[in-house]
Amino acid sequence: MRTVLSRVGPVLALVAAVFMAACGGSTMLATLPDDDAPAAAKSATQNDATAPVSATIRGTVVDASNRPLANMTVECLGDVHCTQPQYQVSADGQGQAHRITFTDAKGAFVLVANSLPGTSSASFMMNANGLGYDEAWRQVAWPGPACSSSESRCTVTVDFKLSATGQ
Question: Is the pTM of this model over 0.90?
Fold first, then answer.
């Protein structure tokens, strides 16, 4: 049986590589002893689940009458870093990761959300608030496991409606 498996293994690896290449996946092959195959499969699955994800978050903040609210704070919380779309990492790989932004005159905001390396959360929390208004919360789901904020399919819309304080 081991002889049959040792001959079938390379063929299956080649078929898997062709399939992965056709589907846009990695074509990197590793030759492993038979005993390590289940551990390698589990490790690959864990790495896919914890690969960093990024998405563009667009939205608006309005009052109870749907009027846009300017200069409201929009914030990300949890296993996520949110930055302005024009955020640039310095040459040494360091940069200041902002977790908040403010709405413009039309109540609109744009952020780039980046999952933290090694985390596997399917979502994160955001809130909007400002002087004279109660805080509103939204749970935001990542658009996909392999998303990048540079792709249009990885844009999420998050709108907030704030109530005046005391109402």
Answer: no
